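User: I'm writing a tutorial on reading structure tokens. Could you give me a worked example: one chain, its sequence, then its tokens, then a sentence or two explaining what the tokens reveal?
Assistant: Sure. Here is the example chain.
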Amino acid sequence: MGVTSGIIVYVITWWLVFFMVLPLGVRSPHETGEKPETGHEPGAPTSPNLLMKVILSTLISLCLWGVTYWIIDSEIISFRPN
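And here are its predicted structure tokens:
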């Protein structure tokens, strides 16, 4: 795997993992007993913890990218004709 394809695989993996991690731990105001502020969506999260989710998705996608790199580099799965 070249540098460019490695970066592309990592970015795609990161976005997929980020969207999977995004709903974790989200609580809306009616679940916490708070009243939403005027003009806010009632289902909007009170504390989205985006920094934690970015860090978590970075770590998870780094592990997944490492496994993907190993599979491609060891030619367990090959995309090139023999």
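What the tokens reveal: The chain has one domain: 1-26+45-82. Helices lie at 3-21, 29-32, 50-73.
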